[in-house]
Design brief:
This protein has 180 residues and is mainly α. Helix content is 79%, strand content 0%. The protein is elongated and about 60 Å long.
Length: 180
């Protein structure tokens, strides 16, 4: 089950990067057809990943209870990873609901993009950043990469650029709505 979760996480990263880049470009005015397919694929992978992670977390807690060795303070990063994954659900749902377009009448109409919605999307970017950055090293280890430091730094750089592009896209989209 851990191996399945590893491949789910890798698939989510790839589809997330595709969706974030294509979505940011669309918010900046350039349209991309790949965005929607990547978005729904990433969402399905995320739901399966969440379910598998919940099962693995319950298994871990069960083993800790049986052995009597939970070592909560020593496992704070483990819990930070789990809690950040749970925290990610709320802004993710807000993102999905916010960017659902009304296509009745042949024209695409999005909901008004207010300051609160901009804040919710920046919160999404921040929670994704925290969750991915705290989990990148364990994922690399699970793929058998021995020198994780170099790969982690590369992944952090690429993720930072993608997340910055997403924030710029949200900001530009908000600015266009504010000008209306």
């Amino acid at each position: 089950m851990r191996r399945l979760n590893m491949f789910l996480a890798a698939g989510m990263l790839v589809t997330f990067v595709l969706h974030a880049v294509a979505g940011a470009l669309k918010l900046l005015g350039a349209d991309s057809g790949a965005m929607k397919a990547a978005a729904w694929t990433c969402l399905v992978l995320a739901m399966i990943h969440a379910a598998v992670s919940v099962v693995l977390t319950f298994q871990t807690v069960h083993v800790q209870r049986v052995s009597g060795a939970a070592y909560f303070k020593d496992n704070l990063i483990f819990w930070a990873r789990r809690i950040s994954g749970l925290a990610l659900i709320i802004p993710l749902v807000m993102h999905v609901l916010l960017f659902q377009a009304d296509t009745s009448g042949g024209a695409v109409r999005l909901q008004v993009f207010t300051q609160g919605r901009l804040v919710s999307q920046i919160l999404l970017v921040l929670t994704i950043a925290f969750h991915v950055l705290t989990n990148i090293e364990p994922m690399l280890i699970s793929f058998g990469i021995k020198s994780t430091k170099a790969f982690s730094h590369d992944a952090m750089f690429v993720l930072s650029v993608v997340l910055l592009l997403a924030c710029v896209g949200f900001g530009a989209y908000y600015a266009r709505w504010a000008a209306v």
